[in-house]
Amino acid sequence: MADYDRAKELKAFDDTKAGVKGLVDAGIVHIPEIFVTPAITENEFSAQNLECSDIVNVQIPVIDLEGINEDDFRHRKIVEEVGEACETWGFFQVVNHGVPQHVMDEMISGIKSFHEQPNDIKMRFYSMEPMKKVMFNSNFDLYQSKSANWRDTLACLMAPNPPTNDELPEACREELLQYSEHVRKLGHIIFELLAEALGLKPNHLLDMECARGHFIISHYYPPCPEPNKTLGITKHTDPDFFTILLQDQIGGLQIYHKKQWIDIHPVTGALVINLGDLLQLLSNDKFKSAEHRVLAKQIGPRISIACFFTTQLQPFERLYGPIKELLSDENPPLYKETTVRDYVYYYNSKGLGARPSLLHLRI
């Protein structure tokens, strides 16, 4: 469109502070041009629907953590399953993980309540300032990315320097605090399993302060009138150590595996674990940070809650690079060292869907 002024349209959307839900509430039938993703074509979606059955039926591993500390044989089997999933997929789901079902259900309900409350209450939290501990927005990379994504987000820094309780939104305050504590404990278990799967002592990654911080990012994907023209989230990897993802039953999450997009079907009671760039760096490419995306859908809203294990933009100067115990003459370091903050700044500056940020550190 000759008269299309993208910068003007982006600012107009940002200024509403109403997010994508505001567009849906206004009754739009065609998505604004800023959301149209050129790479998403009818052909790609048709190809997805025609994938051969062996691809369609492929599923990421589901690992049962039941009895993890009761039996040495069972523990070793779980470590082995985690290692294989990390090397092959970069993604797996866990069941019997210790987070009660009612806590997960209440968290999803609380996030839905936040996003569906009157806009004059919700917009008090609206911000594009990355250093804020609690912020609501639509597309953190709105001005950097090539296309906006069909989602709104509430982001809350929960550790190591959390907001005071009364700074958290009332609509989901108790749910956030409860879920954060449960997921923190699970995160420590996952760090121990990852360390053992790398052949290290269980506390190795914890001693490196990898679990020092976590950041909960809760997405709300309203129904989209033209889901074949946009995405819920553009393909990307996560700029953290790993992510614990809670999703509802609607689906839409996909992982790029062996040159195919594969659906990650929701499993009742399960949490999705996906490795981030920083763990790929620490493992010197033994473990993979896999590209993933979320499709836009005509049904909804879809709710997902991602807990990023990272100190995000906190001013910590600890350097992270390939773990020395894993290196040898045959396995030299592949990456330069970085602080978490520097890596996240670089990642955020480019917007989702850009060239993989880890390449920036490649030796």
UniProtKB/TrEMBL annotation:
All copies of domain Fe2OG dioxygenase, residue ranges: 212-311
Gene Ontology MF, one: L-ascorbic acid binding
Keywords (A to Z) from UniProt: Iron, Metal-binding, Oxidoreductase, Vitamin C
Keyword Iron on entry: yes
Extent of the signal sequence: none
GO biological process: coumarin biosynthetic process; response to molecule of fungal origin
Superkingdom per UniProt: Eukaryota
Gene3D superfamilies, A to Z: B-lactam Antibiotic, Isopenicillin N Synthase, Chain
Pfam families: 2OG-FeII_Oxy, DIOX_N
PANTHER family xref list: 2OG-FE(II) OXYGENASE FAMILY OXIDOREDUCTASE (PTHR10209:SF776), OXIDOREDUCTASE, 2OG-FE II OXYGENASE FAMILY PROTEIN (PTHR10209)
Similarity comment: family membership: Belongs to the iron/ascorbate-dependent oxidoreductase family.
Record protein name field: Deacetoxyvindoline 4-hydroxylase
